[in-house]
Amino acid sequence: MDIQLNFIEQGQGQPMVFLHGNGEDSSYFVQQIAHFSKSYRVIAIDTRGHGQSPRGEKPFAIKQFAKDLKDFLDAINITKAIILGFSDGGNIALEFALKYPERVEKLILNGANLFPSGVKPLYQWPIEVGYRIAKLFSNKSEKAKQNAEMLGLMVNEPHIDPSELARLTMPVLVVAGTKDMINESHTRLIYKSLPNAQLAFVEGDHFVANKNAEAFNKVVEDFLSR
What we know:
The protein is of the alpha/beta class. It has helices at 30-36, 62-75, 88-99, 121-137, 142-156, 184-193, 208-211, 213-225, and strands spanning 7-10, 15-19, 41-45, 81-86, 104-110, 172-177, 197-202.
């Protein structure tokens, strides 16, 4: 691995890995870390180029982040974990599970999408406009270059064929907000494409894990205890 990922670790027991969304860091899960570290060995990672993790030289892409996760888990000797990913973190978790299914005990996908059009146009259009503007200035400004890279993740990725999800036989929880930026039909498509999945909607927007933590944690808790 060309970089060392920054991470927060708390608690003991079965490993439970948290993957944050685009432009965020591990602190997004502060309420989940406090809650789940009572029962699990919780590890919340800063993705490459996010939080305190360096950018490195490798591609800034979902598949690379999934490879980074494998290298990270190898380095700390975790062979199998529960993985909870939010937004882009959910997309990373999906890519990871498809590539290394034997490494995933249970999978929790919160506000994930299989392709960019899974995001409601109301949210996707401003992202695309911002991306085009940032790309225009990326040769002149380091900040614009970073913005273009970050927004590019949501404009150009992910690209997962729903039929691929049939290969994932581990238990999966698909969870989204009732007013999520991901189309409800898209969340249901992910759920229906998985052979061993549960579906839950939590009151709130895309950021339910943070804004409605108690309800979100309960849904995850119920899934894990089954």
